[in-house]
Amino acid sequence: xxxxxxxxxxxxxxxxxxxxxxxxxxxxxxxxxxxxxxxxxxxxxxxxxxxxxxxxxxxxxxxxxxxxxxxxxxxxxxxxxxxxxxxxxxxxxxxxxxxxxxxxxxxxxxxxxxxxxxxxxxxxxxxxxxxxxxxxxxxxxxxxxxxxxxxxxxxxxxxxxxxxxxxxxxxxxxxxxxxxxxxxxxxxxxxxxxxxxxxxxxxxxxxxxxxxxxxxxxxxxxxxxxxxxxxxxxxxxxxxxxxxxxxxxxxxxxxxxxxxxxxxxxxxxxxxxxxxxxxxxxxxxxxxxxxxxxxxxxxxxxxxxxxxxxxxxxxxxxxxxxxxxxxxxxxxxxxxxxxxxxxxxxxxxxxxxxxxxxxxxxxxxxxxxxxxxxxxxxxxxxxxxxxxxxxxxxxxxxxxxxxxxxxxxxxxxxxxxxxxxxxxxxxxxxxxxxxxxxxxxxxxxxxxxxxxxxxxxxxxxxxxxxxxxxxxxxxxxxxxxxxxxxxxxxxxxxxxxxxxxxxxxxxxxxxxxxxxxxxxxxxxxxxxxxxxxxxxxxxxxxxxxxxxxxxxxxxxxxxxxxxxxxxxxxxxxxxxxxxxxxxxxxxxxxxxxxxxxxxxxxxxxxxxxxxxxxxxxxxxxxxxxxxxxxxxxxxxxxxxxxxxxxxxxxxxxxxxxxxxxxxxxxxxxxxxxxxxxxxxxxxxxxxxxxxxxxxxxxxxxxxxxxxxxxxxxxxxxxxxxxxxxxxxxxxxxxxxxxxxxxxxxxxxxxxxxxxxxxxxxxxxxxxxxxxxxxxxxxxxxxxxxxxxxxxxxxxxxxxxxxxxxxxxxxxxxxxxx
Length: 817
Fold this sequence. Notes:
This protein is of the alpha/beta class and 817 residues long.
């Protein structure tokens, strides 16, 4: 009996431990899942995860049916999918002219002035590996990204040799051109029908590295030489879906203000990516100036591709793809953008492009004039699509009229001999436009419905032990619900205040759930407790940041001419309550309310002047000779830093840099002990300049000094010490949006230094440890606040957003008071 009692006690102890482990694991699993949520995460995926956490079972996909009969064998199912996909890749019309073939062959043989064809460097490979997402499914070769990220330097060089051999010979391993396709059921469809599945393609991770390296070079070339359509906003840096949405909203608002008629046609390119003609694309590349290795490698990459379909543990027979771009390849969006880059832009016609989502819009003083303009534009688009072997789908092409005039029924528009349907509402890039006066009524009603559905997720989590953490619930609201409510708000913010208040009620309900508050709790107090501003204020902040972002891109941004220089709108006398202002006028008014100048000067985000394949390899060291931990004692940090300087940089010229910021002043300084040189700069716009910009400015000035004072250096190598880890990380990640102009200048100077046979190292050192050189630079930066002369240092986009953020927070504080 005693033994049984002891055993029972042990059982209960072990059971309690197991429950605790399960509880902790569930909480960590949920936290990890929440960290990966995005506005695009399907609601069903979140519900499935909740069911798993509650030990519920997720139902499997129904069995496929063929000819009315169920198909239970997984391999047979896989073959059914494979045959359907292969049938869509018919190559009967994959022909180009002899003249086009000659152009391609000549371009493949020519390599003059094409340094983008040089061998890839180890720096390009490492930059690519560093940015690989860790958790991505593997291709059929089962090589995982984590394996590639953990490769030692010797294996990296072997991989580089393999990629360069493929690049030089235009011979691509078969596994790089093979994909594994997983059919994913479309929500709300009949899952017994093979057509109700979306094929998701898994590619070789090694191939993806080579594709990324090629794509980086190709993108730079196309952007540098303006080979893409200026209105294309899809899959391009510093562009987003909001750009075409805001441009279209602006066009419609301007039309309503000027009492005109606007006609907008939304086109559907049927299976655009899947029907791309390979030869036509290669010809477009050759015509754009792509020659030699890049053209030959691309041709081999596109042709003779194969795939298998996987269902459960079974795979289909291998099939061939004769048309289309490989799904999941980083090159595919770039190829598609180039293919449609010659889309016509008829006079006085607004052309909108986001990948294969196309829209054209015209405004005129009468319906007849607008019809004439839009018909001419439609004919031009028809001819363009035919020339590029793209298929316009008449059934899904729709037209809308926006106006305040009373009009008769509009005449028929046609495309490919079929009538285009006139509609009152149309969903374009996630926003539902409603005719004739663009009130956003339909869009906001649908958004409220979806927001209410997503609130149910918060309610389901609030009563669990693993998901009821307040911080996690608020995180889910911000990422999964608020992002849905505010998507496209740069355009939708022209809606009536009463409609915006409907969205605000969704936020109020979410805060009460997340904070466990009663319905009678004052919402202003809950907003402060959650540190989440009222939704209408957040929308104004959101729009102002988008305005700053657009301004920072200068003339390259498609909005600039249409919005910031539209005199037809600019000179209009506004009548409150009669006309809704376009985005620019609305946002400028909000910024004036916050005492933020609408013409705030923000630096342009330039295209890097040095091609990525010629970028000098900056030697950036983020670690000391011994590892240090957070919270390490000051004396130990100082000792390790001094040991690093003595062991690695005894024969180097030492330069220390630092930045300093007080309430309304920002400064930078450098200190060169060997030359007893101390320099400081007080920066313009110091109130708004961030400390990171000051640190980057100091690094730039240190590098400038080395180029102008070589006779002091005595052919020594150079080391620049900085305590700004964030600055060095931004320099490592060149694609980062932080301080783009400063980074560009630093790399340009590094290029000059390398030409003069010097090497330069940027070494991180811990701050405030009593390290002599670092303390001297810190003192010099603080002294620079007293300077009378200001040095120009342009504000970056991040500083512009910070200005808006602080102004919005101040407005919130004043409203609360």
